[in-house]
Design a protein that fits this description.
Strand content: 5-15%
Distance between the termini: 30 Å
Number of strands: 2
Helix content: 25-40%
Shape: elongated
Radius of gyration: 15 Å
Largest sheet: 2 strands, antiparallel
Order of helices and strands: HEEH
Length: 98
């Protein structure tokens, strides 16, 4: 599956939900999470664009304890290795420029 269905988040890559960790009263977690969600969605579209399956590797939006947005990359090691190869090839072809 490439993420087109609703169940792609629960396919064996266990991730903590919103009830994971401690929440601090008065911290705005929502705005940080929204920012992270936009970035994670963009990265997930790019992963799909290079032919990677979101059931094997994906970006996940989260926040840290201060409410700052965080994007985590999670995936199976072999697929993350493939992603690293793609990035290394791109860096080599561009002379290391991002």
């Amino acid at each position: 599956m490439t993420g087109s269905g609703e169940g792609w988040l629960n396919d064996g890559l266990d991730l903590p939900g919103a009830d994971f960790g401690l929440w601090v009263s008065g911290v705005d977690y929502i705005s940080g999470w929204r920012e992270a969600r936009e970035a994670a969605d963009r990265l997930n579209r790019a992963l799909l664009g290079v032919g990677l399956e979101l059931s094997a590797v994906r970006a996940v939006a989260s926040t840290n304890e201060n409410g700052r947005g965080v994007v985590r990359l999670t995936g199976w090691p072999a697929v993350v290795d493939r992603l690293a190869e793609l990035l290394e090839t791109r860096a080599d072809s561009d002379g290391g420029a991002a």
